[in-house]
Amino acid sequence: WHVLAGVAPLSKLKMYIEIHWQDMQKNNYSNKTVKARTPVFMVGLDGADWKLVQRLVGEGKLPTLAHLMQNGCFGQLDSPAGEYAGGVWPDFYTGQSVVQHGIYHNKLWRQEHMRCEVPTDHWLKARPFYEDLSEQGYRVCVLDMPMVLGAPRPLNGIYLGGWGTHDLIAKGSSPPDLWPQLRSKYGPPVMPIEHFGRQTADSLLLLRDQLIKATEQIARIGVDLLGSEAWDFSCVILGATHRAGHYLWDGSQVETATVRDRQIISTALEEVYIACDVALQQLLSAVPQNALKVVFAVHGMESNHGWGDLGSDLLEGVLHYSQQQKPKRGLLYELRRRLPFHLVRPVLTRLPQKVTDRLVQLWSANMYDWHTTSYFPLPMDQAGYIRINLKGREKYGIVEPGDQYEQLCDELEL
Fold first, then answer.
1. Minimal CA–CA distance to 246: which of 356, 384, 85?
2. pTM of the model
3. 56-94: per-residue pLDDT in tens?
4. Which residues have CB under 8 Å from 368's CB, separation 6+?
């Protein structure tokens, strides 16, 4: 079987694969003792846009994907990325919605502490489905699943996380010595640290080259590990399409460039997609021909026409208007807002994880005077999030449940 799924958190597709396995177990095998006859192999193109894939396939630039589409089935599935961009990967690997697992961003509000915290695996009771497969006796091989919380756990197989992902939450391997072995054989991870702030034509072209090299590296690693034994379930995620989409989508990241530079930049995103198509062909060649093959993306990409990054400023304007005075902000929160993000972020990414986690807690604990603040902005991605300081839920809640809460929600909607 060859299946190409478009944009989705693949809850429906995951259900299909589970039914596929359950049917094999019921008809052919006893539980937890025998390997599935038909292996399953999945490749995720992180942030790959379905419309762009269709166009490039039509132009003959993605022959591997074109072959899968011609010989299998494909389509576009629903995704919650518009509301919870940070929740799509937890949706996929847990089979639950954001409402159930609660992970929607890399910083989450904890009402019992009245602060934001970086989520850990202690927050998420549901575990990735491949860990369940491992416990059932299946041999699994998973490479670079994004947004998996916590250190890698022992598996009946191998796991590599954070090697070439766009969103770096946690990195490591299971078994632990796998990472140093791969580093010794293939060199350190090529995926570059994200460069925030203004871009130049040269920096974008450098990014293109780095992403192509990162894709080639993870493909070599994938071919090596996939071919090391006959896995029951295997999955490789290519992160370059996500990073490329953010910076190479339409050339708007650079203000001044020559005509030649703009022409080169205009094809940079396509070149990354083409590199991923080549990597896909190499990965497919490393798995058994009878494997159920699934290529998927949990969300796509498009120009950002929203005002999510201005949500805090807009909300504070509303607070200022309703209270007839500027909201009282904490000192650290005020300092964080005033420091240029593109200068601060590169420094933070180089600090130990425990340090950055603690900094998040410190600046958010006193974002506002909680005794006078009825609602406040939360860390956000492309969507803006507003939290009501509700009595009985928040530690220092002041808004009464019921009519007062409903009236406040109506005011915010207006």
1. 85
2. 0.85
3. 999 999 999 999 999 999 888 788 888 888 899 999 999
4. 327, 328, 329, 330, 333, 376
